[in-house]
Input
Amino acid sequence: MVKLDKIYTRAGDQGTTRLSTGEPVDKWHPRVTAYGTVDETNAALGVAALHAEAELLTAIRRIQNDLFDLGADLATPDRGKALEWEPLRIVKAQVDRLEGEIDAMNAALSPLDSFILPGGSPLAAQLHVARTLCRRAERQIAELYSMEDEIVSAEALAYANRLSDWLFVAGRVANDNGANDIKWVPGANR
Output
């Protein structure tokens, strides 16, 4: 269990931080940037939760917990050395759960015949904000994944990818199952 008895450490005053392994890194290190954007996604979901009810609220809270798992995964690099604890990693079951939920939500939606604009209901709009943050996190995780000296699991990258899809579909659900989606009209303002 995590115990935080002191919030500030002054360690960041010089532009550095420590990963969960204790390894010092710059605050702009790609690993810190990636888990920072995961945290931004989580915060956006906290705002979305203010507008959600029942099933969608339960799913959002579960995903927020998963995002802490993802942040912990990214904050604990695999350097090939044994740690004093078992690092928390995203697992395939978490990705599979998102896929199942996407399929279940999507079954109630009519197929898209246009791109849609982010918006509609307050919940849908906030889910789209979270989706765009998640896409940024996914790009940053993918960059980290491609770096020769950094190890990121395929499951961590897949989770971010699936979550952005989940957020898109959930946004449509929040728009009365797509009935209140705002369709893009190509060239409408020429």
User: Anything to note?
Assistant: The chain has one domain: 25-77+87-180. The mean pLDDT is 94. The radius of gyration is 18 Å.
